[in-house]
Amino acid sequence: MKRALVGLTVLATALVLGLVLAPRGDAAEKGPIRIGLLTSKTGVLAIHGTHQMAAVEAFKDKYGTTVAGRKVEFYPEDDQSKVPLGVTKVRKLITGDKVHIVMGGLFASTGYAIAPLGDQYQTPIFVWSCPDDLSQRKRYKFVVKYFSCSQPQHAMAHWLRKNKPQVKKVIIFGPDYAFGYESSGGFQKVFEDMGGQVVQKIYAPINTVDYGPYIGQFRKDAEGMFVTLAGPQALRFPKQYQQAGLRDKYVLVGNGTNTDEFALAAQGEDVLGWITAHIYGGAAYPSQDNQEFVRNFKKHLGNKDPGYYAEGYYGALVLIYKAIEAIKGDVENKAKFMEALGRTKVTEGMPGGPKVSDGYGNLNTNVYIRDVRKEASGKLYHHVLHVYENVSQFWSYRPEEFLKQAVYDKDFPPCKFCK
């Protein structure tokens, strides 16, 4: 009898230990969550990639490498600032590294190119760049994006018409690819709907060195310029523009990339007073979330300030973590993960302010109108003039009406006031 009781005790103990120690069917046993990061560590956009990778480290400082009870592994890939290579690298991340989600892409053109892979492989892709049509007419089941290229520039046009009504005729100048067309198109649409006129549109290749031939074409009868600069353009155009004696000729407004922190120190006084619109207020913006981000970022990039390229990468990872938490780490259920990502609402922890999914695969976001000023020390910084809150990619237009028009491109809206 005693031997039988001992046997039962041993069996019971073994069963208890088995329940405690045996593998469980929960998140922990599924292994790490793998996140692919597409960026540009080399090529014309290399400096942006450097800022993005520093932003990843700042993100780890704040949020760690565990979410919903699962370890997270990051798989960075360099597309060398080449769109076709970006497609190759995303395919490698999905089929070779078996990542659960891909995030990144710098060119808007890269976003358009990699998006079809999401549906092809049924793998979520968070397009970090801003190609408008991926959340408008060309939506994919497994693709979301951070914002639309035209989104901040709708607000820029509104601010310009309201605050500088003397600026009635504007020249558009931008890079000769989707980012330039869509940014400019958003500005032109709202500016002309509010009574202004775009009288000239000029686009230059991103690797242009001599801007003299373009600057020589600028119409003299315009009061303002809307400028979009990308990559090395931000380091070359401002100096040549000032050397041409145009500092006081036009009211110059434009895209936040024109004076992003990656270039601001090198640009110097050539960009003093330039007014830009973007989804990030800049490194000097005093919100608690932003200043914590700035402190962490500086630790990883030689005490340099972060700009929009860094903030966007950081913010996108925050949204990804929030979606993973919402589904308790079950990223293998890709449809459930996309659903969670598609209804994201984050009001805290974002350097650029709250982000709310709009139901179209894009995010409503704050848009900051900033100008460039100089501290007593000589350091340049962005001063926020106005914040447009919760801005939709459709601005104030009804989505169903907005989507009836063509996507903004080189010829749309047409330049009906050009001679």
List the helices and strands and how they pair.
Layout (H helix, E strand, L loop, with lengths): L1 H20 L11 E7 L6 H18 L2 E2 L2 E9 L4 H13 L5 E4 L3 H14 L3 E3 L15 E3 L5 H13 L5 E7 L2 H16 L3 E8 L7 H4 L8 E4 L5 H11 L7 E5 L5 H7 L7 E4 L9 H11 L9 H19 L7 H8 L3 E2 L8 E3 L5 E12 L5 E12 L7 H4 L17
Parallel strand pairs: 1-3, 1-4, 4-5, 5-6, 7-8, 7-9, 9-10, 10-11
Antiparallel strand pairs: 2-3, 11-14, 12-13, 13-14, 14-15
Description:
Strands 7, 8, 9, 10, 11, 12, 13, 14 and 15 form a nine-stranded mixed β-sheet that branches. This protein has a six-stranded mixed β-sheet with strand order 2-3-1-4-5-6, with helices on both faces. It is 38% helix and 20% strand. The relative contact order is 0.13. The chain has 13 helices and 15 strands. It is an alpha/beta fold and 419 residues long. It folds into two domains: 30-149 and 287-365, 3-Layer(aba) Sandwich (Rossmann fold), CATH 3.40.50; 151-285 and 366-402, Rossmann fold.
String of helices and strands: HEHEEHEHEEHEHEHEHEHEHHHEEEEH
pLDDT < 50 runs, ≥5 residues: 1-25
CATH topology of the largest domain: Rossmann fold
Total number of domains: 2
Mean pLDDT: 93
Structural class: alpha/beta
- Helical percent range? 25-40%
- Name the beta content range: 15-25%
Return Rg in Å: 24 Å
Instruction: Give a count of the beta strands, DSSP E runs of length 2 or more.
Output: 15
